[in-house]
Amino acid sequence: MSGLAELAAGAAARQSLWQRLDLKWAVIGVSVAIVAYFALVPLVFLFWQSFFTPQTATKAAEFTLDNYGKAYSSLETARLFINSLQFATGVAIFAFMVGTLLAWMNERTNTPFKALFFSLSIIPLVIPGILFVVAWIFLGSPKIGIINLVLQNWFGTKYVFVNVYSIWGMIWVEGLHYSPMAFLLMTAAFRSMDPAMEESAMMSGANILQVAWRITLKLSWPAIFATILILFVRSIESFEVPALLGLPVGIEVFTSSIYRAIHQYPSQIGLASSYAVTLLLITSVGVYFQSRLSSQGNKYSTMTGKGFRPRTIDLGRWRYAAAAVFFGYFLLIVVLPFLVLLWSSFQGFYSVPSMAALKNLTLDPYRFVFSYPTLAQSVWNSLILALGSATVIMLVTSVICWIVVKTKIPGRWLLDNLASLPMVFPGLVLGLSIMIFYLYFDVGVYGTIWIMFAAYITRFLPYGLRYNTTSMLQIHKELEESAQMSGASWATSFRRIILPLLKPGLLAGWIYIVIVSIRELAASILLYSPGTEVVSIVIWELWENGQYVELSALGVLFIIALFILVMLAQYVGKKFGIKEAR
Amino acid sequence: MLSVKALFTEYPNERGETVKAAQDVSFDVPEGKLFTLLGPSGCGKTTTLRSIAGLERPRSGEISIGERVVYSSGRNIFVAPNRRNFGMVFQSYAIWPHMSVFKNAAFPLEVASARVNRAEIDRKVMRVLGTVGLDHLASREATKLSGGQQQRLALARALTMEPKLLLLDEPLSNLDAKLRERMRFELKRLQRELRLTTVYVTHDQGEALALSHEIAVMNEGRIVQIGAPRDIYERPHNRFVADFVGSANFLEATVIGRDDRADIYQVQTAIGNLLAFAVEPLKPGDRVVISLRPEDTQLSAHRPDTLNAFEGVVEAKLFLGEFIEFQIKLGDMLMLARVHPSFSPQVGTKVYIGMNPEKCVAIPDDARHRKA
């Protein structure tokens, strides 16, 4: 009798063992499949499409090299290439110089108010690219730009002082927009440097500038190069500035040409694909060198990664000039753009600030925005997409990250690289490849919100991976092993030990992805259809329709909402003791 | 009770080379005994322990506990660690920071395949926390514990599951010296009271000698000697054990012949002929190494009338509180002697060093690896 009971118990134990094993491999399998599908599929079909003619109702797609022929035989392409390089290089250098100067002043000098400045440096993140560009059009356009009008008024001329509709204007606006990123990256680099290096130079008799130039900058060389590469990649794949400032005056770069090739009739998907492949090659080279650089960073043994508290350099009376630079910068990047949007959001139709215009203040734009037919739907779409993709990404990458960091499964580095692959996709290129894929494989996704969901998951997968990896590396493997020894199965220890310990990274990454998905424009613009608009698309549409004041009202509300989100992120970051990753 | 047979493990290191961690490791631990794996870092002791735990999969061999085989390469058996029901205390303690003291200790019962009801969990956990003296801290956050308390919590967690076998991986190495000494006593008392079959891994010979019923000294993946603590210390089988466990003077020697007494031989060394002890029979002409512990030497100002006494000069001395360490120069040799501080000759003076033949252990010179 007891023997029988034992037998039954044994069978039950074996049964549950199988169930548990199944669950582990099911979760891992699904996560790997999701990553492989989202990271590889668009890339493959982009290549495929670039070698084929468009498929029509009457004619099947045929193999052709014409797309590349057309793309590379014309002088137009040479100009495109030169424009893109000029633009991206200009932005990278300009943003780098601004960011580095600010980072140096903030980390190494006794400039007043620098603590305040550092805490404000997060604010530019809340202004989406498209609104920043629009604001700068209000400020620097040759006809309606406030800066021109004010200067013309003062000097009594008709001379156009600044013109954002030019390659230099584009570099200026984009460079300003990316300078906070350069600032954060270079701040991290300066922080990880042993100040004894600088102090010994000073003891050898070098002055401030000699130390800054010959020691600080030279030692940060790997970080400098990596920062410039990131800025270069980001600007060559950026869409808003080339579309809003370049296209109207015929200055085209790769991203704006891809957009134009699709939005002409009939749309030339093959041509767009061959441009996209070229762009992808450029960004891949950039990302490759950048990742090589950061993995070799420890070659410079001075960079120990420890937190130092360096002695700051006394600027003397110059520190007031330095503080003025901080305030001037903050004015250009946050205050002026926001104020100009705020001003125009209270106008019946766009007009330059003046006493006369002050009398015309109205709430009409806000009334318009709130009664805008697609607004409620687009806010809902934005929220669903942002929350959904952030949740899926963080959970999937937590499993991926566990495999990569905690196991010795052969080929796990491949998984890591696969999940990081979307880094090289410019948003527009990603939108294009996903569009092509679901056009040809009609699984009922095209034209629905799911296609944008797929794009967001792909695009932000690497961010999730990075946040999770940082956290996962801090979890001692014995914490998990002791759960195993306590009798917990893989699923139990993942749910009860790994996930709770991963919480800081999970939360921070989740909020970051929510913020960047809400701002997303470049991929969405090729994928949306009536009913699936997101907020940034509504802003784009308002711009296309010339409804500037309404756009401003929506922009102001949008910025305030994002600001609240970022503050929330800061709060969570402080509460759970994690640093803002880039 | 626990039986490990012909265990081989290897794993690739960062450069892709194969590291041979455990080579032909075999031992048995009787029920209720504490067995220690002792050796320098990289000798394979931790890998052996993790293989017993199931956290690493050996290349070949067999591990069984009582009648239950948990690993066998021949029969292709591998029981997952969470199915083995072994308690383990990790070097880092691995206390989960997101749980309270009680939650940490209750975890093994909560995840057990046989459901345990709430009241039963409460009762068992509080009893175990009481055993290790943490019952008054049950509701505290685990991260608010001191190092010694965390160590005891880790032990409590391993005990709540009422394990068949307790595995301890350098459990005391993260404590400061004073606390470590106290925990040694406590661990020994607990193990003896609960009569838990235990495998203990350490690189600290003092811990091993103090706690164990039996010690296996490991080097380069192999067990080089198994024995009771006293045997290991007083009768090392080879030069490695003599050197690693405690400190020792070594004198190369050639056997001349037997003495009248059992197991005592006359040998020739660089400092002169002396009498030495050997476990296994030696014959004239055998090359051996004489191992002598510094504390087994006698120093005196006048020639003692014992055997094995030599004249030397004090080369250097270190005052260490409980004793003084001398370097004594004997011809070309330097010998280490450890004596009570009451005898303190100046550097450069002539002293006599006496060696009890029972303490001069002759070790076969060629036996670097020796099966126990």
Task: Describe, in plain words, how this protein is organized in 3D.
The complex is a heterodimer of chains A (582) and B (372). Chain A has 582 residues and is an all-alpha fold. In chain A, 73% of the residues lie in helices and 0% in strands. Chain A has 25 helices and no strands. Chain A has helices at 2-50, 66-73, 75-108, 114-120, 129-140, 146-155, 167-191, 195-203, 208-219, 221-236, 240-246, 254-263, 269-295, 318-345, 355-358, 364-371, 375-406, 412-420, 427-440, 449-473, 477-485, 490-519, 524-527, 535-544, 548-575. The relative contact order of chain A is 0.12. Residues 1-16, 297-307 and 578-582 of chain A have low confidence and may be disordered. With 372 residues, chain B is α+β, with helices and mostly antiparallel strands. Chain B is built from 8 helices and 21 strands. Chain B has helices spanning 45-53, 101-110, 118-131, 147-160, 177-194, 205-211, 229-234, 239-244; strands at residues 2-12, 18-29, 34-38, 60-65, 68-72, 77-78, 86-89, 165-169, 198-202, 214-219, 222-227, 249-258, 264-269, 272-277, 287-292, 297-300, 309-319, 324-330, 333-339, 350-355, 361-364. In chain B, the strands form 4 sheets. Chain B has a 6-stranded mixed sheet, sandwiched between helices. In chain B, strands 2-1-4-5-6 form a 5-stranded antiparallel sheet, with helices on one face. The longest helix of chain B is centred in the middle third of the chain and has 18 residues, at 177-194. Residues 367-372 of chain B have low confidence and may be disordered. Chain A binds chain B through residues 13, 16-17, 476, 478-479, 481-489, 492-493, 496-497, 500-501, 503, and chain B through 53-55, 80-88, 90-94, 96-98, 107-108, 111-113, 154, 157-158, 161, 167.
